[in-house]
């Protein structure tokens, strides 16, 4: 299929028909889309359709759903090496999808974010090394629609680290992510916390800000979940908090005395809940 406006209009009409409650209209449209989905440029036509301002939102959403399902069915290369998507299409999809996802309405953003996660499951990081850099770049926009889109994508992409078996390949991938993502994520967390203070009396703003903080913490959790002998960010944070408390107890003994019992209790609870692995030595 050529990447033309006429073909985009054709897909748009068939997508409209797939929304029909009448089976004799809906099913032929679904069959047509199934018959052409392995054609070159099919995925790109769907992405361009989703990006067209003149296309109705309901059709765009249908296109985004169709794209996600197409990716889910066809992006994995089969065990016998069969590749159902043209290589050029694969590369162009990866170049287009992140920016398109981030400037799309929320209903479309969710579908494209899921598609990014599916592609990332198979291509990241070896076949998609620029993904993290492209995502981090968007943190600087200050637009929480964009930032939250990136965070939700990161969460979908990294949450598998919680469940995968340990391997050198997994450690290598997580280190790759941490090298590129840990510092920007920390800076984003700090900036977002500052915004929470600034907008303390604005409930609408706080709702957006705290939703961002929640997803940042979910990403943080995924990146620190795998057990390792080396202390992770969470262990370093706990250790640093303990050191800060000890400093105040030593330097400001009299002023700090009223708060000491609560801190001692908290520190004790932390110690008795800490494992025996060497990575916890910083805390204990």
UniProtKB/TrEMBL annotation:
Gene Ontology BP terms: protein export from nucleus; protein import into nucleus
Keyword Transport belongs to the record: yes
Key words of the record: Cytoplasm, Nucleus, Protein transport, Transport
Gene3D superfamilies the UniProt entry points to: Leucine-rich Repeat Variant
Gene Ontology molecular function terms on file: nuclear export signal receptor activity; small GTPase binding
Domain Importin N-terminal: 29-103
Cellular compartment(s): Cytoplasm; Nucleus
Top-rank taxon, per record: Eukaryota
GO cellular component, one term: nuclear envelope
Name the record gives this protein: Importin N-terminal domain-containing protein
Species in which this protein is naturally found: Timema bartmani
């Amino acid at each position: 299929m050529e990447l033309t406006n006429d073909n985009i209009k054709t897909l748009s009409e068939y997508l409209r028909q797939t929304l029909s409650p009448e089976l004799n209209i809906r099913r032929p449209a679904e069959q047509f889309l199934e018959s052409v989905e392995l054609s070159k440029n099919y995925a790109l036509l769907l992405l361009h359709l989703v990006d067209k301002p003149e296309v109705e939102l309901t059709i765009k959403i249908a296109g985004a759903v169709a794209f996600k399902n197409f990716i889910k069915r066809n992006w994995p290369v089969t065990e016998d090496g069969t590749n159902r998507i043209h290589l050029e299409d694969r590369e162009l999809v990866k170049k287009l999808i992140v920016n398109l996802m981030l400037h799309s309405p929320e209903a479309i953003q969710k579908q494209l974010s899921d598609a990014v996660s599916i592609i990332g499951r198979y291509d990241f990081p070896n076949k998609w090394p620029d993904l993290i850099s492209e995502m981090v770049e968007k943190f600087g926009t200050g637009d929480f629609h964009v930032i939250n889109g990136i965070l939700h994508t990161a969460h979908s992409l990294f949450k598998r680290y919680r469940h995968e078996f340990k391997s050198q390949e997994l450690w290598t991938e997580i280190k790759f992510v941490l090298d590129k993502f840990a510092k920007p994520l920390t800076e984003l967390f700090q900036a977002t916390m500052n915004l929470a203070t600034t907008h303390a009396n604005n409930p609408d703003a706080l709702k957006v800000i705290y939703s961002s903080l929640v997803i940042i913490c979910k990403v943080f959790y995924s990146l620190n979940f795998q057990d390792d002998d080396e202390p992770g960010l969470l262990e370093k944070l706990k250790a640093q908090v303990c050191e800060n408390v000890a400093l105040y107890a030593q330097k400001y003994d009299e002023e700090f005395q009223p708060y000491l019992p609560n801190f001692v209790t908290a520190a004790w609870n932390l110690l008795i809940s800490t494992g025996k692995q060497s990575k916890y030595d910083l805390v204990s």
